[in-house]
Structures are given as C-alpha cells and as structure tokens.
Amino acid sequence: xxxxxxxxxxxxxxxITACNSSLIxxxxxxxxxxxxxxxxxxxxxxxxxSYVNPDQYIQHNLAVGDGLAGFGAVLQALPxxxxxxxxxxxxxxxxxxxxxxxxxxxxxKVGFDLFRFENDxxxxxxxxxxxxxxxxxxxxxxxxxxxxxxxxxxxxxxNKALISDFVDTILVNGQLDKxxxxxxxxxxxxxxTAIADGLSGLGQALETMAQQGIEMIYDxxxxxxxxxxxxxxISEGTFAGEPTSxxxxxxxxxxxxxxxxxxxxxxxxxxxxxxxxxKFGNL
Length: 283
What we know:
Radius of gyration: 19 Å
Structural class: alpha+beta
Signal peptide: 1-20
Oligomer: single chain
InterPro entries: NTF2-like_dom_sf (IPR032710)
Order of helices and strands: HHEHEEEEHEHEEEE
Keywords: Signal
Strand content: 25-35%
Number of domains: 2
C-alpha cells in the first residue's frame, strides 16, 4: 500500500507541470507548505506537490536528481512502507524555511532541510542527513530532543549576528580564547552524539579528537538563518580529512548560546553526483 502511495505521488510530480493551477499561490504559510511537502514522503499527500514550482525545483541533495523528476525517482525507490517523517522544528527567515526532522528514509536518519520560496512556491532545496543514533550522548540528550519553543522574535537579527560572529571567530578562525564570550559559563545543552553538555564537554571532546588525530575544520560559512531564538548556520569544511557539510542549529537565550543541535554529512565525490547544482550552490 505504501509503495502504491509513493508511486502515485511520483506520477503526480511528473504530471503536475500540465496543471496551470499549480502555479497559483496557495494560502498556507511557508512553514506549513514545507512541512506538508516533507510529510508527503510518508503520506503521499498529492496537494503538497502543488506547493512546488513544477518548472523550477533546484535540488542540492547530491544523491538526488534535479527537479521534481529526481524527487519522484527517489520516492519510487523507497522500500515499501518504510518512509516515516516527524518534523520536530520549523522556522522561517524571509523566503527560506528550515526544518529539523526525524526520518526513516532509507533507514533511520536525522536531517535538516532548507527550502527557498519564490512567488509563494518552493523553488529550491538543500539538506543535510545523518544516521540516527540509537544511544543518547554523554549527557543523556538525543539528536532531536529539547525545546522547540519559538520566542524573542524581536531579537532575530541580534541572535543571527551573534551566531555569525561565533561561527566566524571560533569555528572558522579557531580563536578559542574567545570561546567564553558566547556562553553563560558552563550552561550549554549539547545534542551532538559524542559531546557532553557545557564548554567543559566541548573541550573534552576536542581534546579526545586531537589525541586521535581527528581534525574538524570549518573552512567557510555559507549562510546564517534564524527566527527568534533559533539560528541555523550552514558551513563547509572537512572532518577527519573528508569534505564535509556542517549544519548547526543554535538556541540563543539572553544573548548567549544555550543549546546546540547538528548534522554533519560527508560530501559524496563528484562522480557520484546526480545533479550539478552543488551542495551549497546559491547560498
């Protein structure tokens, strides 16, 4: 039954270009449209495909073909009855919506998705996916738990500026002597699977990686997006020598970083790309 739903949705994706009504803006918020499209992976909801511009859907997941045809092909390849989607957080910054999702998508995964809207329709998609861990981190947190409460909307730009400065100063330029400027002492909740809470936990993890000869290098930050107290940073670099995409979600409280979630994904070799748009293209 689930396989039939996936095939039906894929056929809809291929044929929707013939339906002029799909180009008429539909009165739902950008967040609702993005979440509905993600949920349609599991439910097969045909209406959700009308939130996508059939003539322009630029795909940056390098394992997926470009356009709606590429999306449809992936849906058809999903094992029968396997797809599960649980969007835990969704935020909007201008024409962008970013989400944090618990997936079963060719196996249990955690993912961030970023959608760009134009004329009220989705025209572009980026994401980062990682295998979902079966175990909590050293402080008992999972990759997805924690608050999703959105507040401090009047501080969005202030919070984005804080995270932009943190990423540039600490992650890209490695000025670790300034680390304390961004946190309220050791009060810091961590959701990375290998790192404990607090600056002490972060320091211990970095020390352990150094002892093992593992380097995590942020070379460039591509974009910082936010809504209220939640800010997403998208960067590229290397992890253990492999080209890597870093998606870091921060919760800011009283001008300090209070909580962090991330998804770290190795960038597949160019000869395996199914589109030519690049992992960070247009960001």
